[in-house]
């Protein structure tokens, strides 16, 4: 599995030119550009070709680390938040404050037998978890954790995120279809219908904000927000766009109240009914990373990413990571709040919500935003 | 393919899935054979018998005191009331005069049982429509009732507190205080149920107009309890054929006329309020006196047929006993509410989605051992 991820990572990072050219406005500040720093450090000790490859591997490993730590932490967080909502204590025995609980869970999952149905399409069945997890991992590449802490500052950042995040559905469809289980098949059918529909709303709500920023590059989107977070700059249409983004983002990650794909009370476990042990854990992990990604996009596009409200991070760029994570976790908490208080929608209601409400509102909202930009009604400080 | 499916007129687009016997939404070992076209339910066939324990047959072998101990294993969420049903049958047959104290305590315990059962139902109902948190809120309140039961009779689920002729032993000295504490607590928590679930727009959308059962159908399918009353069918045994102390308390029979899942839901929420009212009327003046009348060690009912019905949390439980004058009954038949409520599932679920089926089934509040006796 790791080798496959490595390949993808090398591919992504390989797209980048060896020396990254950051926008001049950002490079004016003390630079933290991790890929550049690692490359420069390696080039001093070995040939350029080796250094480039080694840099890719190191960056890939760093991101794998982020991926797994974030995944483990989010699982723990969800369990603690759930416990808090449900008047329980939650896991608090393994390690200090129960922090090692998910490590123990992961160990347990690794040691579990990988079962499956006899008549499953073995190749696709085994391939499905990789699709899901690689998608989640790829999207992490463009997230700006702080100024310069971004593996891949591509000029089509938002577009890349939307494109990559829509690949995940293939994994779910494959998993559900190849399991040779009717419950899994229903889950997969629902997934197809749901993820593809809500993809539109995510894209359009982000498009609304792109009208405001005039750029698709994530670092520049943050740069624009130095004059005020976009949710403030774009006032009413931005708030509408944010609400739509959160709703459709939750739906796109298949989380409650839109967890039609799993719907444990209806389908048992839906598309991953037949998956066990680590293969199941990949789906599970990917769901959490997707949640993180959606929240991170929300924080970046609407709430200024790593920017602090009062410009504190300008001189200490590393603090930006905490601002970024702080905003992201507020949004993650919001999504967890949805999950632990809302009942689940029915599949036709889910589609009604998207096609009859969110999509028309979104389209109108884009026009409103265009008018706002045209008349220069933007609020900034 | 299952043999049952072959006998159906099966269209090529339709397919067949087994919901259960192990499925989270069936709340026990109930198997539903679903014929589905995409997401739309075409047919629901319940397949029973996975936990059948021949309780009626065993009852023919046992003495009347022993039958009581079998009944709480049927509808284990209404065990006090189930026990009471058999005790009342025997007492009526023997024409025993039961002390007033016993009648009042039985009524209070019955209503506490109803609240506990509805709490669990509410939690599980929420879980079935995807709101997991309700489960824990329901259990929080149910736990207090279980503590009262535990203190009263040592058991939390299968009580065996009622015996023919009265109660096994007198109530615990703390009983009145703890019950009052619970009522005070529950009065503040019951509105929380509405804030968390009833008022939720998704929940309303999931429930309104789903699984509609008309009054005529409710009557013809033999629906009872909140399922019948959700369709506007006045069928509360406590009102129409009062037993124990129900003739001396005032309470409303909760009726809704829409007949959809939301009505059944609202009826149960309303019933919890009514149960509180009943307990409040009785708890302060439990009459003094004996907690049982002395009966013979071997009870023999006079030859004849006896029928007694009570209102359990799920509806009308009837106990039908044929006695030939020996120490054990010739035939015992339980008319369980769950069985007739399950029989109408196909009628109201067809045409809905899979999600609707789960929501509808949850509002029927099925307890499988009650169906599979």
TrEMBL record, chain B:
It catalyses: a quinone + NADH + 5 H(+)(in) = a quinol + NAD(+) + 4 H(+)(out). It is found in: Cell membrane. Pfam families: Complex1_49kDa (PF00346). Residues 128-296 form the NADH-quinone oxidoreductase subunit D domain. GO terms for molecular function: NAD binding; NADH dehydrogenase (quinone) (non-electrogenic) activity; quinone binding. The keyword Transport applies. It is a peripheral membrane protein. Keywords: Cell membrane, Membrane, NAD, Quinone, Translocase, Transport. Coiled coil: none annotated. It is an enzyme of class 7 (translocase). GO terms for cellular component: plasma membrane. Its EC number is 7.1.1.-. Belongs to the complex I 49 kDa subunit family. PANTHER family: NADH DEHYDROGENASE [UBIQUINONE] IRON-SULFUR PROTEIN 2, MITOCHONDRIAL, NADH-UBIQUINONE OXIDOREDUCTASE 49 KDA SUBUNIT. HAMAP family: NDH1_NuoD. NDH-1 is composed of 14 different subunits. Subunits NuoB, C, D, E, F, and G constitute the peripheral sector of the complex. NDH-1 shuttles electrons from NADH, via FMN and iron-sulfur (Fe-S) centers, to quinones in the respiratory chain. The immediate electron acceptor for the enzyme in this species is believed to be a menaquinone. Couples the redox reaction to proton translocation (for every two electrons transferred, four hydrogen ions are translocated across the cytoplasmic membrane), and thus conserves the redox energy in a proton gradient. This is NADH-quinone oxidoreductase subunit D. The lineage of its organism: Bacteria, Pseudomonadati, Bacteroidota, Flavobacteriia, Flavobacteriales. The gene is nuoD.
């Amino acid at each position: 599995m790791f080798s496959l991820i490595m390949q993808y990572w090398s591919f992504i990072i390989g797209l980048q030119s060896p020396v990254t050219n950051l926008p001049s406005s950002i490079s004016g500040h003390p630079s933290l550009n991790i890929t550049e720093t690692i490359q420069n450090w390696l080039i001093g000790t070995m040939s350029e070709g080796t250094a480039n490859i080694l840099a890719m591997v190191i960056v890939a490993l760093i991101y794998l680390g982020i991926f797994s730590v974030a995944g483990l932490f989010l699982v723990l967080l969800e369990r603690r938040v759930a416990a808090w909502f449900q008047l329980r204590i939650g896991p608090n025995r393994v390690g200090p404050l129960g922090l090692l609980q998910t490590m123990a869970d992961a160990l347990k999952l690794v040691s579990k037998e990988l079962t499956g149905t006899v008549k499953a399409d073995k190749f696709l069945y085994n391939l499905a978890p990789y699709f899901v997890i690689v998608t989640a991992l790829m999207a992490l590449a463009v997230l700006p954790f702080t100024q310069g802490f971004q593996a891949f500052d591509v000029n089509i950042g938002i577009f890349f995120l939307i494109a990559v995040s829509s690949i995940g559905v293939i994994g779910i469809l494959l998993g559900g279809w190849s399991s040779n289980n009717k419950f899994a098949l229903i889950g997969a059918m629902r997934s197809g219908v749901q993820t593809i529909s809500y993809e539109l709303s995510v894209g359009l709500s982000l498009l609304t904000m792109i009208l405001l920023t005039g750029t698709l590059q994530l670092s520049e989107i943050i740069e624009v927000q130095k004059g005020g977070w976009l949710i403030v700059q774009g006032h009413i249409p931005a708030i509408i766009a944010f609400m739509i983004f959160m709703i459709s983002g939750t739906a796109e990650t298949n989380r409650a109240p839109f967890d039609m794909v799993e719907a444990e009370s209806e389908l048992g476990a839906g598309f991953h009914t037949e998956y066990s042990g680590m293969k199941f854990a990949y789906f599970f992990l990917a769901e959490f990373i997707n949640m993180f990604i959606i929240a991170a996009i929300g924080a970046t596009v609407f709430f200024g990413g790593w920017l602090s409200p009062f410009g504190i991070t300008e001189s200490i760029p590393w603090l930006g990571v905490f601002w970024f994570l702080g905003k992201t976790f507020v949004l993650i908490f919001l999504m967890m709040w949805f999950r632990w208080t809302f009942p689940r929608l029915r599949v036709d209601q889910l589609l009604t919500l998207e096609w009859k409400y969110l999509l028309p509102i979104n389209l109108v909202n884009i026009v409103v935003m265009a008018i706002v930009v045209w008349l220069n009604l933007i609020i900034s400080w | 393919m299952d043999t049952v499916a072959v006998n159906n007129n099966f269209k090529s687009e339709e397919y067949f899935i087994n919901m259960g016997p192990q499925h989270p939404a069936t709340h026990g070992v109930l198997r539903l054979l679903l014929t589905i076209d995409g997401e739309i339910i075409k047919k629901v066939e319940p397949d029973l018998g996975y936990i059948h324990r021949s309780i009626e047959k065993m009852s023919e072998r046992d003495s009347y005191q022993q039958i009581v101990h079998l009944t709480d294993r049927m509808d284990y969420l209404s065990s006090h009331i189930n026990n009471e049903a058999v005790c009342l049958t025997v007492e009526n047959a023997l024409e025993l005069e039961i002390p007033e104290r016993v009648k009042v305590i039985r009524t209070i315990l019955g209503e506490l049982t109803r609240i506990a059962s509805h709490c669990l139902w509410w939690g599980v109902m929420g879980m079935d429509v995807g709101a997991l948190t309700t489960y824990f809120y329901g259990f929080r309140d149910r736990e207090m009732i279980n503590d009262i039961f535990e203190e009263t009779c040592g058991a939390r689920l299968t009580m065996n507190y009622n015996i023919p002729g009265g109660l096994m032993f007198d109530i615990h000295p703390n009983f009145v205080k703890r019950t009052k504490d619970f009522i005070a607590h529950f009065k503040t928590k019951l509105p929380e149920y509405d804030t968390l679930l009833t008022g939720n727009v998704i929940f309303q959308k999931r429930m309104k107009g789903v699984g509609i059962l008309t009054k005529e159908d409710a009557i013809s399918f033999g629906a009872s309890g909140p399922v019948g009353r959700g369709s506007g069918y006045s069928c509360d045994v406590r009102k129409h054929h009062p037993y124990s102390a129900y003739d001396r308390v005032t309470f409303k029979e909760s009726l809704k006329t829409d007949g959809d899942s939301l009505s059944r839901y609202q009826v149960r929420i309303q019933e919890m309020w009514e149960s509180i009212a009943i307990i409040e009327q009785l708890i302060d003046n439990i009459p003094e006196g004996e907690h049982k009348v002395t009966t013979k060690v071997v009870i023999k009912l006079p030859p004849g047929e006896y029928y007694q019905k009570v209102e359990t949390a799920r509806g009308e439980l009837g106990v039908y006993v044929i006695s030939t004058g020996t120490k054990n009954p010739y035939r015992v038949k339980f008319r369980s509410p769950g069985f007739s409520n399950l029989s109408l599932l196909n009628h109201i679920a067809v045409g809905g989605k899979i999600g609707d089926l789960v929501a509808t089934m949850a509002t029927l509040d099925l307890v499988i051992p009650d169906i599979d006796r």
